[in-house]
UniProtKB/TrEMBL annotation:
This is DUF1679 domain-containing protein. It holds the Pfam family EcKL. SUPFAM superfamilies: Protein kinase-like (PK-like). It comes from the Bacteria.
Amino acid sequence: MAISAIVRDKILQVTGAERLAEVTPIQSLWGGLGELFRVSLVHVDSMSDNTNIPQLSSVVVKHILFRAPVDHPRGWNSDLSFQRKMHSYDVEQHWYQIYADSCLPTCRVPRCLFVERHADEMLLVLEDLAIDFPELIEQPNVLQIEACIYWLANFHARFLDQAADELWPVGGYWHLDTRPDELAAMTDLRLQQAAPALDGAIKQCRYQTLIHGDAKLANFCFSADGKRAAAVDFQYVGQGPGIKDLMLFISSAVPPALCEEWQEPLLDTYFRFLFEALQRQSKTAVVDWPALEQEWRFMFAITWADFQRFVQGWCPDHWKINDYSRSLTEQALLALDQVAAEPASVNPIVASDNKVDHD
């Protein structure tokens, strides 16, 4: 893969390498807006010239070009979709500059070695997680699923009640306020009409954390033994209930035919990991754990229905629209109807005087 001399020289400067041994494409970015690639490095001395960066055998580079997209894979070409994607790269930049170093070893993310932003492009040079997490998995086993859930629980514990300054005020790429075109395209009128209520319930959760925002299986990499996971791609990180990430992960990693059977065991695993992480981080004294668990368990169906709302408008024949997702959506709509019919004193999970509005 060929790269420009300017990008090559910047990588050499940042890493202290003598030369680039190999440049290997990982993937093209959305709409042809740049490339993600791995660079193998050759060093002369045992120590890097840059004392702030250890000598590395490889790095991952994200080169983003701020220009009109070439195409959209599903035809959603609009100025709004373009601006949303451009803002997502700004969010990712801020994530790496402000927040990433706060992650603990139990929720590994790439270390940002260098970021440079110009009017028409951005360059991110990142730690290559493949050194410690070489495996990418398409069909995970139980051990790998639990490794991802462990990462999510520890990430959510680390950033519980964290303000989302310079990130998305509502994490996740399917957030209703950013998807009016997909909402208008829906044919399920009942779900379409319930969309504001679903969105409002999520925003008004008492317990908020930073969520990854695109916690699908493809954004996790694994240690060789499958016991540990790390996460990449932080374009949609922002505030929300942690269960929103778990919902998206399960939708991507568990076959629909198994979701109903596995739902409660996976939820139990997540909340066990979350409680243990809060204990390690000395946060259980300031968190009403029973209230948090009750609220987020209740929100599992709500967040799935909210995601179903997006998928139905975006791609109505998508495989994630299935019997299980329809069943959870129906459960969520009935729950919202019940909450609306009850006074706040009866159902404090969604209708509460302690709600925080994160609009």
